[in-house]
């Protein structure tokens, strides 16, 4: 019988994620015992015994010395029904832009929460990184979330049901507020990333008598990723480019499909290009559909004429290129003493675009309870407000209305290293396609 293998991108983020990612690769046979022994010795020599699993994902020296992921690590593993790409996103505040590029490629998020006393609370409090990461993941299109409560083996926790329930009950309202449908799109499960407990096989009742749910691999296999349209107009935001027998661009196909020989447009500079070859992972393929991360070799354009944030697009229905648009924004938490009003400036992150922007006009405030526009004129808003406003950028950017292409129509606003608002594109100026 032919086994159908689904390709899925999994973003692992927050506390203990590199260890969990490393353990996944070990348990799925991607790393052998000798390599693990080498990492154990390396970690021991640095007096970091418990970090050895993280070394599988954290390959550069800076990451190993600091114990922090800097770049988005990529690795692959397979279960019986699916092929997964793990994206190990940086957790530390200074590396959030790198996390954004990882999140924009993922369908499934694995949010790793530490059960250890004090660690969960630090990440979860106002301004903590857990909050920011969840909001970013949702905004960037990570539609399904597995919340793994890690370090359950820690002596301060000892597989306590009370501690697990406490974390679940505190996280649930926040996940709802971030836009997740907790019943449909979120699943919690306990595990130990360091020991590999409840990861590939269900855990022994002797360890944790109260847990009757699946292990991590089962839960990942069971997630249904929302479908994308293989017949829609082609859209692929470019996250990177390089020279290799022509110009090669990298990104995730968000809509439509691409075949060797296709003619496409690079937007916003409207350059017509021809597809010479398509690669998934290291393999050359004839065809790639939506949801796949690909490298495409092009003729007709020089790599110097392409920037991250440009979009490879269908010629018949090109993506819009604009310098202003109307958006609905949810204000999360402004910096101290900041007022959100016309003239407010921030950094806009939308798919692979990073661009300075200015709010030029507040159009209307939305009542958070009724979700209906409020009658009064709006001059400024505070934390927690929902507001429709006009956003302006200096350079042409490629975006879509949220209602047409959710992946290309949602964004975050950041300032001074902090996410202050999440938003969706509501209207584009008429005639913005060409």
TrEMBL record:
Recorded family membership: Belongs to the TRAFAC class translation factor GTPase superfamily. Classic translation factor GTPase family. EF-Tu/EF-1A subfamily.
Keywords of this entry: GTP-binding, Methylation, Nucleotide-binding
InterPro entries, per database record: EFTu-like_2 (IPR004161), G_TR_CS (IPR031157), GTP-eEF1A_C (IPR054696), P-loop_NTPase (IPR027417), T_Tr_GTP-bd_dom (IPR000795), TRAFAC_GTPase_members (IPR050100), Transl_B-barrel_sf (IPR009000), Transl_elong_EF1A/Init_IF2_C (IPR009001)
Classification via CDD domains: EF1_alpha, eRF3_C_III, eRF3_II
PANTHER family noted in UniProt: TRANSLATION FACTOR
Entry keyword Nucleotide-binding: yes
Name by which UniProt lists this protein: Tr-type G domain-containing protein
Function: This protein promotes the GTP-dependent binding of aminoacyl-tRNA to the A-site of ribosomes during protein biosynthesis.
Species per Swiss-Prot/TrEMBL record: Salix brachista
Domain (Tr-type G) ranges: 2-228
Pfam families: GTP-eEF1A_C (PF22594), GTP_EFTU (PF00009), GTP_EFTU_D2 (PF03144)
Superkingdom, taxonomy of origin: Eukaryota
GO MF term set: GTP binding; GTPase activity
């Amino acid at each position: 019988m032919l086994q159908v293998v689904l390709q899925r991108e999994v973003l692992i983020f927050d506390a203990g994620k590199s260890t969990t990612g490393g353990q996944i690769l070990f348990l799925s046979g991607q790393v052998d015992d000798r390599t693990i022994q080498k990492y154990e010795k390396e970690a021991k020599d640095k007096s970091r015994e418990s970090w050895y699993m993280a070394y599988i994902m954290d390959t550069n020296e800076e990451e190993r010395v600091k114990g922090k992921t800097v770049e988005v690590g990529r690795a692959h593993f397979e279960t019986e029904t699916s092929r997964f790409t793990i994206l190990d996103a940086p957790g530390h505040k200074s590396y959030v832009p790198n996390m954004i590029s990882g999140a924009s490629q993922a369908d499934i998020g694995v949010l790793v929460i530490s059960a250890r006393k004090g660690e969960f609370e630090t990440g979860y409090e106002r301004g903590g990184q857990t909050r920011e990461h969840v909001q970013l993941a949702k905004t960037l299109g990570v539609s399904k979330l597995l919340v793994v409560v890690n370090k359950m083996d820690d002596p301060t926790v000892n597989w306590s049901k009370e501690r697990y329930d406490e974390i679940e009950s505190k996280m649930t309202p926040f996940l709802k507020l971030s836009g997740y449908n907790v019943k449909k799109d979120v699943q919690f499960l306990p595990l130990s990333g360091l020991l590999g407990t409840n990861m590939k096989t269900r855990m022994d009742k002797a360890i944790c008598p109260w847990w009757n749910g699946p292990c991590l691999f089962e839960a990942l296999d069971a997630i249904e990723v929302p479908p994308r349209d293989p017949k829609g107009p082609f859209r692929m935001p470019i996250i990177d480019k390089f020279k290799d027998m022509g110009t090669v661009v990298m990104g995730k196909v968000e809509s439509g499909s691409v075949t060797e020989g296709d003619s496409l447009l690079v937007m916003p500079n409207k350059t017509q290009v021809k597809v010479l070859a398509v690669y998934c992972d290291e393999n050359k393929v004839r065809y790639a559909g939506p949801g796949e991360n690909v490298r495409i070799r092009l003729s007709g354009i020089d790599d110097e004429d392409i920037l991250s944030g440009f979009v490879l697009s269908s010629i018949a229905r090109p993506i819009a290129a604009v310098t202003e648009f109307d958006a609905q924004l949810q204000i999360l938490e402004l910096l101290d003493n900041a007022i959100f009003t016309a003239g407010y400036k921030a950094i806009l992150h939308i798919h692979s675009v990073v661009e300075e922007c200015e709010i030029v006009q507040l159009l209307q405030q939305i009542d958070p309870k009724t979700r209906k526009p409020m009658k009064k004129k709006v001059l400024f808003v505070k934390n927690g407000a929902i507001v429709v406003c006009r956003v302006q950028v200096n350079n042409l950017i490629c975006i879509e209305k949220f209602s047409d292409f959710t992946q290309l129509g949602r964004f975050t606003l950041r300032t001074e290293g902090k996410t202050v608002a999440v938003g969706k594109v509501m209207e584009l100026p008429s005639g913005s396609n060409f």
